[in-house]
Amino acid sequence: MDNHFDSIIIGAGAAGLTAGIYLSRAKVSTLILNEGTVGGQLVLTHEVANYPGVEHISGYELARTMKQQAMSFGCKIRSNLKVTSLQLEGEIKSVEINNKETFTAHSVIIATGGKSRMIGAPGEVEFKGKGISYCATCDGDFFQDKEIIVVGGGNAALEEAVSLTKYASKVTIVHQFDHFQAFEHYIDEAKKNEKINFIMETKITQFMGDEKLRSVKLEHIPSGDLTEMKIDGVFIFIGYVPNTESLEGIIALNPNKEIIVNSNMETNIPGVFAAGDSIVKRFRQVTTAVADGTIAALVSADYINNIKKNSEVLA
Amino acid sequence: MSLRTNLTHIESLEDHKSVVENNENVMVCCGRMGPMCIPVYDVMEELESEYTNIKFADMPFDSSDAKVIRDLEECRNFAGLPFTVYYKNGKVVKATSSIQSRDQITSILDEQFGK
Predict the structure, then answer these.
(1) Does the structure's ipTM exceed the value 0.90?
(2) CATH number, domain A132-236
(3) pTM of the entire structure?
(4) Most exposed: A20, A63, A247, A300, by fewest CB within 10 Å?
(5) Which residues, numbered 130 to 149 in chain A, qualify as contacts with chain B under a Cβ-Cβ cut-off of 8 Å?
(6) Does the annotation count A75 as an active-site position?
(7) Residues A22/A260, Cβ–Cβ less than 8 Å
């Protein structure tokens, strides 16, 4: 593989793949470098029912189609790698992967997306898959007639709490605030479900067990009181954090570590664009990621054309 | 019904026996086509060309014959898909529950089977 491209996209979620489709179709040589599975958060979505033009599709199928579409136009994709160094200043940008290969390009689109936020309490990593889960549709049936906790107060937490009552005998929603952030209808559904009860203004400070999760330590935030609660499982839905750790000090981020862009998806560095869940924005949806990726690609293509034209004039 | 991956499919007890007995090093991911399982299949597909000394296979979690994985002592406390089991010379040497990253998987492969 030639190591120079017109554009490098970092991230192969909905935003990155969309940018790859647009750029490749416009005959802009494009390489997508992806740290995880192609599809990003989209692959983690069991069913997408609000993508215009497609009534019902799994996130996996939608991502796979986007990948095939990008590749059909000539886009190169490398996945499950580690970006180890970034040089974004100047007309030629470079991206090193796995401490051994370096790729260069005139423009870079950052579409690194986000990942599920973890609680960060002791025992969380140890008991993942042994009582702790981040996917109700995947693991709900392991908790038939068991007592479980759902952590969170947003739409995902309330919706999944209701869906988990199909399996669990009792679902306790633990939330750090005294009110929920979810839409009213999700809250109403949860409140009228007899299997669901609520513990507000409380957080989990420790997961405990032996070969599997047995109990959690709860802290009532206003009083600081600690209690232990025996439990069979904990499902965690407390939002997402942007994948921007490696960009700190390189590109402008806001205090939430989200990439600052203008309406053209331009960052503070000329030739560097950003799109999708890693940028500053209110609504993180497949459709908004696709829109961001489209804009970033089109503006990036203009930028690359101008650079090439200027080079020809100077030559 | 087999899973939609490019891995070797194990669909029966006989398939399982054959794969485990005829290969020194085996990694079997037993799951569904769900959000926690697909990333593991994806990593396995990529590792096939890198780890030629290992047989990479999948097995549908909901098939009745998948009890050969589900009922393993090593999986007794598992409550998260996929169940991933590593065999050396026909014996289970490691098992993990739920999604695993490429780094986590290669770390196990290097430790158990050598690179």
Answers:
(1) no
(2) 3.50.50.60
(3) 0.81
(4) A247
(5) 130-135, 137-139, 142-143
(6) no
(7) no
